[in-house]
């Protein structure tokens, strides 16, 4: 096993039990619409379900199944804001994208409908025909519908890595993810090394946004997060759930909407554990509170 790898679902690695200091919170990213444009904000409220309004809305197809940027990359161009990401939004959701008029979506009050997030059967409130039509025009699909998570407490987390009462909205797995700039630097170095070995032109360094984490920190050694079991941001405590297994989403450039082999090719070489390529870690809030860019981050 590579020196920087950590066995999925365990705390076993060379940095285990080592308290980490001198970390700082560099970035807070919220995604009100799942797979929509990342909204970077200076501060936010942490709730039991995660950051305020993070992944509270998502698109589903005609059968109620998740539609993400994996299937519809143009979702990356949809800027979705709530009062948590833009105080100018009075309530609900504001949608924007080039070439389309802005659309204000009210908080839905219709009866919940069945939706499916991967293998999870959930309930959500439909946003209505106007929002559906706007998004269908943007994506060039006639089957998508916008839904809102009206009750995140109904969504439990993965058994074996969670505790009773843990919950979230439409995040893939856990309420919060945290990523390290130090780890990204090491990954980009590996990508260059591999490109040169294969006689390829090294690509531009990947930005941290490729991994769509909520919290971005710097100050620790590369992949020091493999050994964390608990993180405190400012005064808000989090429990580490498990490492994040990356999917093809990270291979899509959110600006050009093109795909490439990276970072999957290089992560598979250095960070492959139990068939999953690992980058960043999942967190579960242990208490509510307020966090801001610049906060001290203490990890152990």
Jot down its keywords.
catalytic activity, 300 residues, MOSC domain-containing protein, M1 Pyruvate Kinase, Domain 3, Pyrv_Knase-like_insert_dom_sf, disordered N terminus, globular, 3 helices
Task: Characterise this structure.
There is one protein chain. Strand 3 (43-47) and strand 4 (50-51) form a beta hairpin. This protein has a single domain, classed as M1 Pyruvate Kinase, Domain 3, CATH 2.40.33. Helix 2 crosses helix 3. A 7-stranded mixed beta barrel has the order 1-14-13-18-16-15-20. A 5-stranded antiparallel β-sheet has the order 6-5-12-11-10. The longest helix has 17 residues, at 181-197. Residues 1-19 have low confidence and may be disordered. The protein is 12% helix and 32% strand. It is mainly β and 300 residues long. The protein has 3 helices and 20 strands. InterPro entries: MoCF_Sase_C (IPR005302), MOCOS_middle (IPR005303), Pyrv_Knase-like_insert_dom_sf (IPR011037).
């Amino acid at each position: 096993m590579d020196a920087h790898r950590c066995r999925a679902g365990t705390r076993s690695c060379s940095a285990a039990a080592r308290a980490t200091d001198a970390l700082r919170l560099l970035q807070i990213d919220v995604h009100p619409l799942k797979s929509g444009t990342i909204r970077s904000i200076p501060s936010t409220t942490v709730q039991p379900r995660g950051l305020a309004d993070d992944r509270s809305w998502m698109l589903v197809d005609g059968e109620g199944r998740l539609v993400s940027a994996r299937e519809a990359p143009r979702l990356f161009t949809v800027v979705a804001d709530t009062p948590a990401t833009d105080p100018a939004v009075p309530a609900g959701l504001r949608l924007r994208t080039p070439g389309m008029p802005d659309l204000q979506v009210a908080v839905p009050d219709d009866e919940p409908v069945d939706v499916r997030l991967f293998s999870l059967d959930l309930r959500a409130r439909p946003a209505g025909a106007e929002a559906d039509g706007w998004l269908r025009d943007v994506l060039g699909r006639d089957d998508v519908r916008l839904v809102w998570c009206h009750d995140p407490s109904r969504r439990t987390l993965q058994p074996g890595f969670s505790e009773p009462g843990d919950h979230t909205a439409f995040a893939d797995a856990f309420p919060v993810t945290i990523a390290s700039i130090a780890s990204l630097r090491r990954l980009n170095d590996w990508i260059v090394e591999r490109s040169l070995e294969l006689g390829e032109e090294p690509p531009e360094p990947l930005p941290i946004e490729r991994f769509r984490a909520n919290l971005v920190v710097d100050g620790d050694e590369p992949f020091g997060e493999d050994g964390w079991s608990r993180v405190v941001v400012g005064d808000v405590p989090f429990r580490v759930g498990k490492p994040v297994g990356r999917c093809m989403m990270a291979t899509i450039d959110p600006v050009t909407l093109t795909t490439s082999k990276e970072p999957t090719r290089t992560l598979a070489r250095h960070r492959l554990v139990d068939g999953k390529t690992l980058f960043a870690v999942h967190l579960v809030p242990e208490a509510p509170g307020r966090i801001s860019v610049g906060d001290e981050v203490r990890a152990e």
